[in-house]
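[step 3/7] fold_predict: job queued, chain A
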Amino acid sequence: VQLQASGGGLVQAGGSLRLSCAASGASEESFMWNSMGWFRQAPGKGREFVVAISWSGSRTYYADSVKGRFTVSRDNAKKTVYLQMNGLQPEDTAVYFCARGPEHTLETDTRAYDYWGQGTLVTVSS
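[step 4/7] structure written:
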């Protein structure tokens, strides 16, 4: 399974971006039954959990720092997960990674995720 994250860029504070994470090299079944997560890593810091979404999209779990501003969704037919980011702030500046999680639970620990995308850089200027 290969995950390709895209959609990052430079935006002013208060702006919006939409990230995408497309899975390739995987059957629809190997994607659609797994939860998916977004993480981010700011310069000089560890990788931080952002949000997880269940296989059906019916359950989500957000980090407090992004709750109310970010929205995750997925389209299993397209094998793609999205992250709509509104109200971006300079502290949201980071490389954003998508990853495949377990089938039945929403996890915040990076160790629960087995496949990772390469990351896409989001820079928010003040």
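[step 5/7] annotate
The chain has a mean pLDDT of 94.
The CA atoms of residues 14 and 87 lie 4 Å apart.
exit 0
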